[in-house]
Amino acid sequence: MEAKKYNLEVSNHDFTVKSYWLDQVEDFNQTVDYPIVVICPGGGFTFHSAREEEPVALRFNSFGMHAVVLEYKLIDQETVYPTALQELAKTIDWINKQPASRHIDKKRIILAGFSAGGNLVATYNGIGTDEKLRQKYQIDHLTGEHAGIILGYPAIDLTVKGSFPNDDKVLHEISNDPTFWKAQDLLNKNSKPAFVWQTRTDELVNVINSLTYVEKMTQLGLEAEYHMFGSGIHGLVFGTYVTQKPGKDKYLNAWTSKWIELALNWLQMMKLLG
Length: 274
Known about the structure:
Blueprint: E1 2-10, E2 13-21, E3 34-40, H1 54-62, E4 66-71, H2 83-96, E5 104-114, H3 116-127, H4 131-136, E6 148-152, H5 168-174, E7 194-199, H6 208-219, E8 224-229, H7 259-269
Parallel strand pairs: 3-4, 3-5, 5-6, 6-7, 7-8
Antiparallel strand pairs: 1-2, 2-4
Helix pairs in contact: 2-3
InterPro entries: AB_hydrolase_fold, BD-FAE-like_dom, GDXG_lipolytic_enzyme
GO molecular function: hydrolase activity
Keywords: Hydrolase
């Protein structure tokens, strides 16, 4: 496996992606093109959670997938959107233009997002699959498309009271454009299949977020698998010692840790892996 950082640029904004490229397995006696996952970590649009970066990338590597972590735009002097959306589109374009020697199955690009990163992925699953919106937000010139998404405790509807961001100031720092406030409303018949999981007791992002998204996908006849676990805090990642904050047992949750194996099964069922 080769780990490498790249600096990319879109709309006069520089951003970083971290790649985890799989090596070929000599015992196979033939080359294999691997699926690839683009990981968008959470952090409330104020930082990128390292707990949702390399540990997640390496786990997907173990499934036989290349992995890329996108360090998308955060809150600063300019709003997060549409720049973050453009960065994700550029990352997919960059993957699509990788040489054949990288052995990427470019028809099986998966987007995985957690919390705020889940908002980005869920939003892209709508705008990125809508020709008119791609043109409106200036990503229509970028190539490649994703095949499915994985969402972990995603922020979907930014207007839900008592849920992230629960602050009009922060909401407008994320975007002044109401188009970006409700990711569920962006879904369309061309949106890609989704695997979604969250805990019922999530104290930061109300579980109505993921329920609303999956409900809209169901209404549109889109493929979706949803798991609502009965208990657990926000930001569990794996719920194991691998992503546990030192000394904080609340980040351990053996039951919710099963989501990653469920996601593996879903990827295989959707013929996006294996």
